[in-house]
Amino acid sequence: MRFHLECRECSTPYLPQKVAICENCLAPLDVVYENVKIEKSELELREKNMWRYFELLPISSKKSIVNLGTGFTPLLKAEKISESLGVSLYLKNDTVNPTLSFKDRPAGVAVSKAVEFGDKAVCCVSTGNLAASVAAHASKAGIEAYVITPQNIEREKFTQIAAYSAHVIAVKGTYDDANRLAALASLELGWNVVNITSRPYYVEGSKTIAYEICEQLAWNVPDFVVVPCASGALLRSIHRGFKEFYEAGLIYSLPRLVGAQAAGCAPLVKAFYRGTTEIEPVKEPDTVAKSIAIGDPADGKYAIRSVLETDGCMEEADDREIVEAIRLLASKEGVFAEPAGGVTVAVTKKLVELGFIEKGSSVACCITGNGIKAQELVLEGFSPPVIEPDIKELARAVSGEVEELHAKS
Amino acid sequence: MRFHLECRECSTPYLPQKVAICENCLAPLDVVYENVKIEKSELELREKNMWRYFELLPISSKKSIVNLGTGFTPLLKAEKISESLGVSLYLKNDTVNPTLSFKDRPAGVAVSKAVEFGDKAVCCVSTGNLAASVAAHASKAGIEAYVITPQNIEREKFTQIAAYSAHVIAVKGTYDDANRLAALASLELGWNVVNITSRPYYVEGSKTIAYEICEQLAWNVPDFVVVPCASGALLRSIHRGFKEFYEAGLIYSLPRLVGAQAAGCAPLVKAFYRGTTEIEPVKEPDTVAKSIAIGDPADGKYAIRSVLETDGCMEEADDREIVEAIRLLASKEGVFAEPAGGVTVAVTKKLVELGFIEKGSSVACCITGNGIKAQELVLEGFSPPVIEPDIKELARAVSGEVEELHAKS
User: Fold this and answer.
1) Which of A93, A95, A284, B186 could bridge B197 with an S-S bond, Cβ 3.0-4.6 Å?
2) Is there a contact between A205 and A234 (Cβ–Cβ < 8 Å)?
3) CA A239 – CA A312 distance, rounded (Å)
4) Which of B159, B95, B137 has the alpha carbon at shortest distance from A337?
């Protein structure tokens, strides 16, 4: 056996089965790998997707892998933003994963694991990135996907989910009601709800972001890594990834981790500034960054611990700053991010201005999802000039700057 | 000088400047490379994006490259469709390029070339994939993008274009009116309209699809490559790509090329079956595959020549077959394609059934764009059951199959 499960708090070991919570202390379980040996030179020859890190993923047989080509997404130098901030800013561009978000990493692992368990179906509660990713991987695996969602979600949100032929069940109630129902389905019906039933495996997928950043910077580690925080699992998973590469002797330092939240739902930032890991839930999240607006984050305290352990911090950005950052990223760097990506860039900007991120530092920002899924934000105020099909009107429409804009060849 | 331009018909040579049409015979110009030397072993070490083929791209200096990480998109084995058709089907998944379509390849080259020419702006006529890609690359390059579009286009189509802060100019008229205006702007205002003014360079980007297929099949060549045809330039460019690799001694055979069109706009298919390269324009295209509905394709005759030269064919699929193929791809292989991708898969299916593609053949299908841009197609008839947040109702909603669907761990 290459890995087993272990309680995050009391270290009780478990066989790598479909179990997520410690029987003794009810804390979450983590995957622990045994005798990992991994060579840079061998790694560099492998296929450029997240399955190249097979030794550090909780899948027993390569045959179980459900591969849509996830991972090894571009790490782009944000040249103009770097220059204006005085840092070296890199964008980890997960907007181009198979279903257009980082969720393909955890969902890819969870659905592969479901195949290994012999499950004929997987389930999740989501109306967004997670549902699309679970649905796509279930399609590829040839198993069913059940997506539980609150009622009254805009129809357009279901485009990907409908395309991948997932079974959608709308619940008369809130997101919380849908989540409680899924937890019950996991317990009482034995459903594999990927982010509940299979959580120890599911969260492992996201740490491949850390591995890739190391490789893409030629085995160097950035000074800071900025991660959006919803449940907190992504930040903790990325921290694990860096630690595992450090312990395997592949890198020689760890980055300082920054957790980024939207001001309209920032329970981790608030706890961090109160100097505690005890989270006060936010009852009514109110932000444009809906994909990370989790009021009572399950892995919140662990995310804060990771931040403290690496001498990092938690910071928030408000809706205006988030939308500005989305526009900045798209119009200066050609990367169109959903609000969660805007949050990381806005927080980076703020921390440079505050001096927490020193000038000259290298910073990697996680751009976790594609802006095309949050179109209403950028279309506000969009109103192009309308002209007759006439060359003089065209020239006027671009306000006389035409001559100087175009060089002669 | 590593490359020059040459007339496609009369072979008159030109310096590699901003010129697209032969002065003598008005035929299009092509880029011709001189003394290309490229080694497999060296190539395999390079960065995994389309700029790894620098020697075969018409950019003079690597400094001009506008790199958003385009290319080296996954080549996925479509396992279930392969099995049902009795062929080895591979999907060249360009739905995950930076702006979610293959257009990042030609637009990436054209905008890099504009940087090299010293242009301060680029222009295109498009409401879809091309405009999004030109806008994103212009942002990254720090130059302006002007997008000319017919009036009365649905607002949602502009999501990406608005995000990347392109200047949109709506024309009172049809798509043809907008195109004529852009051609005039190129001629009279000296604008760099990427697919007109810079066409010889622009079309070069798409051939990287051919290079990547060769590399991703370990330097083997599939028996067939199926390409959607709009202007015809994509198919011809892919043909060029395979020929260049063949001439460089990197591969030892050429694939048979299949051009795929929607029945509602299939001038190339019609010409092919009439046994001619003379295209009769389609006056009123009528198909769901809007991104490839070009009634009078500029490179049509060259696409037919490529098909004839490789012993391939042209074939069409109707709207029902296209939508069915989109659903098949998404629900069996986890890839959500726009209609142009549906066309290639539908045509492949038809040609296997007709026996033109023999059982046991290997086939690569170009999946050129992401289905999320054509959401109305898959949401038709989407109507999930609505339940109370109650575990019994949930179990009933999935119609009693729950028990047997879930294995015990």
Assistant:
1) B186
2) no
3) 11
4) B159
On whether any CB of chain A is under 8 Å from the CB of B371, the answer is yes
Q: Judge: A159–B100 Cβ closer than 8 Å, yes or no.
A: no
pLDDT one-digit tens code per residue, A46-96: 999 999 999 999 999 999 999 999 999 999 999 999 999 999 999 999 999
Domain span including residue A263: 75-100+205-379
Based on the domain organization, do A263 and A330 belong to the same domain? yes
Q: Is residue A228 part of a domain?
A: yes
Same-domain pairing of B257 and B327: yes
Q: What is the ipTM of this complex?
A: 0.92
> Is the predicted pLDDT of residue A403 greater than 50, yes or no?
no
3-class state of residue B327 by DSSP: helix
**Which chain A residue shows the shortest CA-CA distance from B154?**
A379
Chain A residues whose CB is inside 8 A of the B164 CB are 330-331, 334, 336
Touching check for A183 and chain B: CB below 8 Å? Answer: no
Residue of A nearest to B15 (CA): A409
- The confidence band for B381, taking pLDDT boundaries of 50, 70 and 90, is confident
Phi, psi of A10 (to 5 degrees): -105, 5
Does residue A319 sit within a domain?
Answer: yes
As a whole number of angstroms, the distance between CA A396 and CA A393 comes to 5
pLDDT of residue B402: 40
Q: How many domains does chain A contain in total?
A: 2
CA A74 vs CA A56, A92, A284, A366: distances in Å: 21, 6, 35, 11
- Do A30 and A79 lie in one domain? The reply is no
Q: Which residues of B touch A398 (CB under 8 A)?
A: 146, 167, 169
In total, chain B counts a number of residues equal to: 409
CA pair distance B386, B394, nearest whole angstrom: 10
Those residues whose C-beta lies under 8 Å from the C-beta of residue B215, and which sit 6 or more positions away, are B43, B44
Of B103, B62, B316, residue with least CA distance to B208: B103
Domain membership of residue B257 (yes or no) is yes
Please tell me whether residues B336 and B247 are part of one structural domain: yes
Q: What's the rounded Cα separation, in Å, for the pair A112 and A54? A: 12
Tens of pLDDT, residues B188-220:
989 999 999 999 999 999 999 999 999 999 999
What band does B156 get if pLDDT is binned at 50, 70 and 90?
Answer: confident
Contacts of B17 (CB under 8 A, 6+ apart): A409, B5
Same domain for A336 and A275: yes
Query: Within an 8 Å CB–CB cutoff, is residue B175 touching chain A?
Result: no
Query: How many other C-beta atoms can be found within 10 angstroms of the C-beta atom of residue B376?
Result: 11
DSSP string, B191-257: --BTTTTTHHHHGGGGGHHHHHHHHHTTT---SEEEEE-SSSHHHHHHHHHHHHHHHTTS-S--PEE
pLDDT at B137: 98
Q: What DSSP string describes A101-163?
A: BTTHHHHHHHHHHHHHHT-SEEEEE-SSHHHHHHHHHHHHHT-EEEEEEESS--GGGGHHHHH
Per-residue pLDDT averaged across B376-401, rounded? 83
Q: Within 13 Å and on the Cβ side, how many CA atoms surround A76?
A: 28
> Is B156–A18 a contact, with Cβ atoms under 8 angstroms apart?
no
pTM for this structure?
Answer: 0.94
CATH number, domain with residue A281: 3.40.50.1100
What is d(CA A386, CA A166) in angstroms, rounded to the nearest whole number?
Answer: 41
* A236 plus A318 within the same structural domain: yes
Average model confidence (pLDDT) across chain B: 94
Give the nearest chain B residue to A374 (CA atoms).
B159
Residue B44 lies in a domain: no
At B383 the pLDDT is 86
